């Protein structure tokens, strides 16, 4: 069994238009690496390297079973078979 | 072109005026592929700022989950500028992530919380390219009473 990852419209160019794909990994980092293997380029849209450490991009939200990963360990958040991962870009902007 | 009914247009303007001088934000959902904005949803500006808006991440998740269950998509993504014109800023363009949506900007710089006309403009924002589009306001359809 695998983990279902729901892909937002803006990133479906990496998944041949698929709204959801399957991936594996025991942590979010591992899952993103697995995604990258099948959908090259997607990793760079999800994470960034800042001051030598890799983190989720500020305006990308990832949820594991309805919970924002920022509250459950970020990229270190643990995953198990059957979990559902949802990726949603932030809806944000402003005059600044 | 964006076609929007009067009641929804009025609701967006009212929200922008009410939240002035902070930016107001929200979406209007519609059936997937229909390009019809029918379900007006005010969102809380988690940034609570006169120069920035952001949907709260938990609200965002719930919003997309609801739309998914209803086979809807965000047809309009709106926000207000409270001291500048109703034109997408560099931040707006950089963060725009719904290539199929109409990005509506309302400027409340003229009358703030008070009565009076506002700038109400619509754009598509795809891969950093902004294209302004016409806005057509249609009379609100009344529910037939029996």
TrEMBL record, chain A:
<protein>
    <submittedName>
        <fullName>Molybdopterin synthase sulfur carrier subunit</fullName>
    </submittedName>
</protein>
<dbReference type="InterPro" id="IPR052045">
    <property type="entry name" value="Sulfur_Carrier/Prot_Modifier"/>
</dbReference>
<dbReference type="InterPro" id="IPR016155">
    <property type="entry name" value="Mopterin_synth/thiamin_S_b"/>
</dbReference>
<dbReference type="InterPro" id="IPR003749">
    <property type="entry name" value="ThiS/MoaD-like"/>
</dbReference>
<dbReference type="Pfam" id="PF02597">
    <property type="entry name" value="ThiS"/>
</dbReference>
<dbReference type="InterPro" id="IPR012675">
    <property type="entry name" value="Beta-grasp_dom_sf"/>
</dbReference>
From TrEMBL, chain B:
<protein>
    <submittedName>
        <fullName>Peptidase</fullName>
    </submittedName>
</protein>
<feature type="domain" description="MPN">
    <location>
        <begin position="2"/>
        <end position="129"/>
    </location>
</feature>
<dbReference type="GO" id="GO:0008235">
    <property type="term" value="F:metalloexopeptidase activity"/>
</dbReference>
<dbReference type="InterPro" id="IPR028090">
    <property type="entry name" value="JAB_dom_prok"/>
</dbReference>
<keyword id="KW-0645">Protease</keyword>
<dbReference type="GO" id="GO:0008270">
    <property type="term" value="F:zinc ion binding"/>
</dbReference>
<keyword id="KW-0378">Hydrolase</keyword>
<dbReference type="Pfam" id="PF14464">
    <property type="entry name" value="Prok-JAB"/>
</dbReference>
<dbReference type="InterPro" id="IPR051929">
    <property type="entry name" value="VirAsm_ModProt"/>
</dbReference>
<keyword id="KW-0862">Zinc</keyword>
<keyword id="KW-0482">Metalloprotease</keyword>
<dbReference type="InterPro" id="IPR037518">
    <property type="entry name" value="MPN"/>
</dbReference>
<keyword id="KW-0479">Metal-binding</keyword>
<dbReference type="InterPro" id="IPR000555">
    <property type="entry name" value="JAMM/MPN+_dom"/>
</dbReference>
<dbReference type="GO" id="GO:0006508">
    <property type="term" value="P:proteolysis"/>
</dbReference>
